[in-house]
């Protein structure tokens, strides 16, 4: 019987061979070796294939799609190809921060058998500075928690960001909506909630702030993940639905009617302070469609003063001012821990050496 690796590092990629090379390198310098790296490529050229072949490492398993199948289908494909005990979702332009990360989290998972583990995320700018935008401390989710408790845990640890989601593999993983989709511009935001929710609820989960991944600090283009410019942005209202409703539908079969109603209300209220961001990444016309849908889902918004305040800010604040505020926040969030900066230098040296 073939050996089953402990981790399957699943990397969907699209036209970023240089970043992909660094991402793979950050795993090859780990002091833990029981893993495979599964890469699924949406690119129209073989540049990423050359990168993967250049490592001459049997643990790297590369495949390229005949045509660009879009982000959602590509990520789904690479998850289905994984053979490891745990699936480790990873972006093609992200990096593992320290060389002992896989070893550390393997020990945690072997000891506590969590169904889901989420790593802390820091951001970097050209590998010169680190930024920390989360003050969340370590969180534990008990086995057999209630449905709402499990969902609140997932959303509190930003599961919707791809990299750093680690969960038990299951051959029965299936999302028919993705499997049946033929349109390369099909997008289902954070569909992996279907996989991690059940495992987290049944086996428990852990948000690990000691082991870290780092992501580029960039302002994403609207359709960066899509197959073309026709792909809806995650803040676009399509078919009178907002971006999270597809992922909600994936787990609503697990909730009773009261739990659904409470969940929708809580999530809609959490969106209120995000209205300026929705406008920034789309337009006033799309923002108004977004707000209309929010009100349809939760009528009590009409009686919330904060709702009107954030809506006014979103509608009338110039993008130039928004950019200035982002710059101020960025400077405030720079990590000034000497130990972290030392780890960053070690990472840069390791990436250059390999």
UniProtKB/TrEMBL annotation:
Keyword Transmembrane found:
yes
Glycosyltransferase 2-like domain location, by residue? Answer: 8-133
Molecular function terms in GO for this entry?
A: hexosyltransferase activity
Q: Taxonomically, which superkingdom?
A: Bacteria
The portions of this protein that span the membrane are 307-325
UniProtKB keywords: Membrane, Transmembrane, Transmembrane helix
Pfam families in the record = Glycos_transf_2
UniProt xrefs under InterPro entries: Glyco_trans_2-like, Nucleotide-diphossugar_trans
Q: Know the name of this protein?
A: Glycosyltransferase 2-like domain-containing protein
Q: What organism, scientifically named, is this protein from?
A: Candidatus Gottesmanbacteria bacterium RIFCSPHIGHO2_02_FULL_39_14
Lineage at the top is: Bacteria, Candidatus Gottesmaniibacteriota
């Amino acid at each position: 019987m073939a050996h089953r690796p402990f981790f399957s590092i699943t990397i969907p990629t699209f036209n970023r061979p240089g970043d992909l090379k660094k991402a793979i390198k950050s795993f090859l310098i780990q002091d833990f070796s029981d893993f495979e790296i599964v890469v699924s490529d949406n690119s129209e050229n073989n540049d990423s294939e050359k990168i993967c072949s250049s490592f001459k490492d049997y643990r790297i398993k590369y495949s390229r799609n005949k045509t660009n199948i879009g982000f959602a289908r590509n990520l789904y494909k690479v998850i289905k190809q994984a053979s490891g005990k745990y699936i480790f979702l990873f972006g093609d332009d992200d990096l593992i921060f320290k060389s002992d990360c896989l070893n550390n989290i393997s020990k945690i998972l072997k000891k506590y058998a969590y169904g889901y583990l989420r790593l802390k995320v820091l951001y970097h700018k050209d590998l010169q500075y680190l930024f920390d935008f989360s003050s969340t401390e370590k969180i534990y989710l008990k086995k057999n928690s209630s449905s709402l408790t499990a969902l609140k845990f997932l959303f509190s640890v930003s599961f919707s960001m791809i990299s750093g989601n680690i969960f038990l593999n299951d051959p029965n993983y299936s999302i028919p909506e993705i499997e049946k989709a033929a349109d390369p511009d099909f997008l289902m935001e954070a569909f992996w909630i279907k996989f991690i929710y059940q495992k987290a609820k049944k086996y428990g989960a852990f948000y690990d702030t000691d082991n870290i991944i780092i992501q580029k600090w960039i302002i994403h283009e609207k359709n960066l993940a899509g197959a073309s410019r026709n792909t809806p942005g995650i803040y676009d209202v399509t078919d009178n639905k907002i971006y999270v409703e597809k992922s909600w539908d994936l787990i609503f079969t697990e909730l009773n009617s009261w739990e659904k109603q409470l969940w929708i209300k809580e999530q809609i209220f959490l969106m209120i302070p995000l209205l300026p961001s929705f406008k920034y990444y789309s337009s006033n016309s799309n923002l108004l469609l977004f707000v209309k849908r929010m009100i349809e889902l939760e009528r009590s918004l009409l009686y919330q003063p904060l709702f009107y305040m954030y809506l006014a800010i979103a509608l009338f604040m110039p993008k130039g001012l928004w950019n200035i505020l982002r710059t101020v926040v960025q400077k405030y969030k720079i990590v000034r821990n000497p130990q972290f900066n030392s780890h960053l230098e070690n990472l840069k040296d390791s990436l250059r050496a390999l």
